[in-house]
Amino acid sequence: QVELVESGGGLVHAGDSLTLSCAASGGAFSSYAMGWFRQPPGKEREFVGAIGWNGLSAHYADSVEGRFTISRDNAKNTAYLQMNDTKPEDTAVYYCASGPFAYGRSQSNYDYWGQGAQVTVSS
Fold it and tell me: Which portions of the chain are predicted below pLDDT 50?
């Protein structure tokens, strides 16, 4: 069973940057794509972006395109979400997710999920 653990969440002011990390263990991390999702308060969980198994391709939701960047270091079994030019509407619990059918926007394609990391952006 693959285990994922997010870290790096916290409180930032609008316009500041923040980077989340997702450490994987117990599975073939380097063979799977890695996705990031978020759940704002009072709303449903939504797709943020994903990166391919070799780190050469990535895609993002329109709401974060040009501001967020996903990367990965397979030697360290770790993926990252770099958040630049943050906005109050970015406030949410952020989740990393993976699995053999990962990469798309649908949550049903992801088998393994982290516990979530709170990110709060003040105005």
Answer: none
